[in-house]
Amino acid sequence: MKNGPRSDETTCAGRGRHPAGSHRRLSRRSFMQASAAALAAAASFTPVSVARGAGPSGKDPAFRFAYISDSHLYAKDLNDRFARALLRAVDDVNHLDPQPDFVFYGGDLAQLGQDHELELGARILENVKAPLKMMVGEHDWYLDMGKKWRELFGEPTYSWDHKGVHFVVLMSVVERDFWTQRNLSPMERMQTVAGLDNGMQSSFMVGAEQREWLTKDLEKLPKNAPLIVFSHSPLYKLYKNWNFWTDDAEEVQAILKRFDRVVVIHGHTHQVLTNRIGNIHFHGLLSTAWPWPYAPQGMPELTVQMSRPDPFNPNDGCGDGEVHVHADGLVDKVYNLWNRNPLIVAKGYTESLGKKDVPPKPNRPGY
Amino acid sequence: MSSHTVKALVAAACLVAVAIVLGCTAASRPADEAEAQAVADRHMAQWKLKNPDRARQWIEEEKARHTIRPPADNSDLLKGDQGKGHAYGNYTERDLLVWARETEKLVVDGSRIFHNAALLGGTVGVSCDMCHPDAANTHPETYPKFQAQMGRAALLRDMINWCIEHPVRGKALAADDPRMRALEAYITAQRKGTPLNYGKH
After folding, report:
1. Among A60, A306, A350, B172, fewest CB within 10 Å belongs to which?
2. Is the pTM of this model over 0.90?
3. CATH code for the domain in which residue B196 is found
């Protein structure tokens, strides 16, 4: 970030490349092999289109974007299930009619940050028809400290404006150095970070450098500006043991405090998750790979949990979704749960602090 | 050579060996317990040097990585004159230490396997913790219960094996496989304090 953060488009345009990255140079045939297997597996699947027209809040949204997140790819010959799940998500967003304004990827594209995992992900995401916006996750980062990810997708921290809404993407999974003193190899460091319940790693944070950048980036916006911030980890403190947590969350929230309303959308938690802290409305993203259980402590009151996933169905609790953005910047958050009815957390729900538009309660709560 | 002759020869050889050892020990017998401990520690240190892999503090290492619930505290058994004059129930501090350490060892071994796709025999890089961090949502207290998908009442180990065969894509473990015993121990330990409620869906 020494030269100032830039969007992935800007970075790639400077290098004369497509924003989706250098994977264009990769073999077409190897991609086709991956997608053929996936299409065969997903042949019986018909994408559902959800919540067309007026949302539960009664007003047409200003625009829509779609999301895919947390695919945790291994090499496809090691684990084809995760690769097929991402292909299914790409199929979902490509079948949305009308097409979303863009598709946002929420981080953890790779499982162990390896070149071939990130390249496989980039090759699959290349098939997304709408423009693609990328966010980084800890699984993409801690093998080579982001080298390959940056090469493919550009800088991890950037912002842009779209139809009157200011969008910001943060790299919220900065960890303090726990590896040098322990003399860990890059792969050992990566595997430590990859374990959600591994207590040897540090907590996530945004860090002073990015907080300073964020302050500057938002400086010229009026207080009523519609603002949507993306972070991989939730920008609040939910459950430290699993890094459902950002250490400097309060400092980041303080930067956002002067705005009338802010939406923060995060990955990492692999579940339906809703929170509201003052002017900030938080929404989680689903994973395409597997759902996480809800944290045993610290659950936000506003969250109506999704029914616990069926272990006998490998896709249950996974999925992708859409975000319907209203003119004031608040959103209807659509969780497109594969194998279930889509679940909508409407703008009115977080706006009324849970009094209106209550999402359906789970019929199979967690144990 | 008949087996009797072999046994006799072995016995004789053993006697000679024991005599030699005793002789040496008698000659350089440690003066007190502290000195004896020092001798033992030196031998242990030498063994650790020669066997670095086996000597790793794997229990401490695993506990540094993952939160593991401790076994029950039995210190009440040492209070007052409980068990006094009984062959059964007359415990010492050492008994309690052995129980705790051996139980914990099994549980910690379970945590190690739970978090490691290779030890589980998985073929797709998937380990238990990827869906069950800290063994969350394993609900061992709800078994046995009827699983329609299996067509029978399932025990915790049946669900462990189901997971090993499906998401983990490994081979089912025998009921008395040391890994199965360790996994059951860890999963149960993580639900310490939860009332048993078998049959709960």
Report:
1. A60
2. no
3. 1.10.760.10
Which of A241, A290, A312 is closest, CB to CB, to B130?
Answer: A290
Residue A198: its chain B contacts at CB < 8 A? 65-66, 115
Domain count, chain B: 1
User: Is B98 at the interface with chain A, CB within 8 A?
Assistant: no
> B13: pLDDT confidence band, cut at 50, 70 and 90?
low
How many C-beta atoms lie closer than 10 Å to residue A10's C-beta? Answer: 14
Query: Closest approach of chain A CAs to the CA of B131, in angstroms?
Result: 6
CB contact at 8 A, A102 and A65: yes
Domains and CATH numbers, chain A: 8-40 (no CATH), 62-351 (3.60.21.10)
- Whether B25 is covered by a domain: the verdict is no
Q: Does residue B45 lie within any of the structural domains?
A: no
Which tokens in the block code for residue A141? 């980062």
Report if residue B115 sits inside a domain: yes
Say which of A79, A199, A308 has its CB closest to residue B65: A199
Strands A165-169 and A262-266: unpaired
- A81 shares contact with chain B (CB less than 8 Å): yes
Confidence class for position B15, pLDDT limits 50, 70, 90: low
Asked whether residue B160 is domain-assigned, the answer is yes
DSSP, residue by residue, A77-89:
TT-HHHHHHHHHH
Task: Give pLDDT, residue B4.
Answer: 58
At A13, the pLDDT band (50, 70, 90 cuts) reads very low
- Interchain CB distance below 8 Å, B129 and A196: yes
Q: What is the C-alpha to C-alpha distance for residues A263 and A323, in angstroms, rounded to an integer?
A: 11
How far apart are alpha carbons A182 and A180 in whole angstroms? 5
Interface touch A293/B66, C-beta < 8 Å: no
Nearest Cα of chain B lies from the Cα of A305 at a distance, in angstroms, of 14
Average pLDDT over residues A26-39: 46
Q: A367 falls in which pLDDT band (50, 70, 90)?
A: confident
pLDDT band at A49 (very low <50, low <70, confident <90, very high): very low
Q: Which chain A residues have a beta carbon less than 8 Å from that of B108?
A: none
Q: How far is B106 from chain A (nearest CA, A)?
A: 19
Q: How far apart are the CA of A195 and the nearest CA of chain B, in angstroms?
A: 8
Range of the domain at B113: 52-201
Q: Tell me: the pLDDT tens digits for A168-201? A: 999 999 999 999 999 999 999 999 999 999 999 9
